[in-house]
Design brief:
Number of helices: 11
Oligomer: single chain
Order of helices and strands: EHEEHHHEHEHHEEEEEEHHHEH
Shape: globular
Structural class: alpha/beta
Strand content: 25-35%
Strand order of the largest sheet: 1-2-3-4-5-6
């Protein structure tokens, strides 16, 4: 399979320059996977309508501060690369926050693979914060959901509850990493040169996985606000550190929002 990296939205969170400089510029890194004659998206970033009308994103966008740019959406990225968006048969979501699911409506024909827990809480949020983070407009088109129960999954490099995707070419897996949201997952892709695990928001910058001690202060503070279950989220960081320590030669990790990974991938700062 051939993997293309895309940034499907850029945020400049307010006050991050002073309080969390690692997050002063934030990409929304998504993947486009060519699997035979199929195109598969890993996360969908922000959508065309989000860029045209950021008010759709709710009050939290006042802090996240998306810089509207329709050319950054997955739909426009694919068109620019010469692909037909209608060939996107499947979208695999790490979770359904606005910056990962906004683009779903731009591919209404695609099947959307996600954990059952994440789908359920996104459609029926129970807390005020969940009602804010999941935007009803992103699901109004009636996505073609394909859901997975973690308890029914298998094992992959020591990670439990891992699901093979239904109706998708082999080599793409859903890896439970709950904490940021209740149904948050990573998405593993076999690239032919080893595995790439898109970790969504399980961590934010590579430094969190390299250092033996705690993450930078600003990131620790951001986690307290961003994660539904902080203890579970920290447990996932520990698991990812162990995954790198035991299988770093076989598995690479990618965060959705790491501006330093963006620089490494694209060869220039965000």
């Amino acid at each position: 399979m051939k993997v293309h990296y895309m940034n499907c939205g850029t945020m400049h969170p307010r006050v991050a320059y002073w309080l969390a400089p690692h997050l002063d510029r934030v990409p929304c890194l998504c993947l486009l996977v060519e699997a035979g004659d199929r195109l598969v998206l890993v996360d969908a970033g922000f959508g065309v309508e989000d860029m045209r009308n950021p008010r759709r994103l709710g009050r939290d966008n006042l802090l996240l501060n998306l810089r509207p740019d329709e050319s950054q959406t997955a739909l426009r990225r694919l068109q620019h690369m010469g692909f037909d968006p209608r060939d996107v048969s499947d979208i695999v979501c790490t979770h359904l926050d606005r910056d990962h699911a906004g683009g779903l409506a731009d591919f209404p024909h695609a099947r959307v693979h996600v954990s059952a827990t994440e789908r359920d809480v996104a459609l029926h949020p129970v807390s005020r914060s969940e009602r804010e983070r999941y935007r009803r407009c992103h699901f109004a088109h009636g996505p073609r959901w394909v859901t997975y129960e973690a308890a029914a999954g298998g094992r992959w490099f020591g990670m439990d509850g891992v699901a093979e995707l239904s109706g998708v070419p082999g080599g793409i897996l859903l890896v439970p990493l709950p904490g940021h949201t209740r149904g948050h997952c990573g998405v593993a892709v076999e690239t032919g040169e080893g595995w790439l695990l898109h970790c969504g928001d399980a961590y934010y910058v590579q430094e969190e996985l390299r250092v033996a001690g705690p993450a930078p202060v600003g990131i620790r503070g951001f986690r307290l606000v961003a994660h539904v279950d902080h203890a579970a989220a920290m447990h996932q960081v520990k698991k990812l550190k162990g995954l790198l320590g035991d299988h770093g030669g076989s598995v690479r990790l990618l965060s959705a929002h790491d501006q330093f990974s963006y620089r490494h991938i694209f060869g220039s700062p965000l």
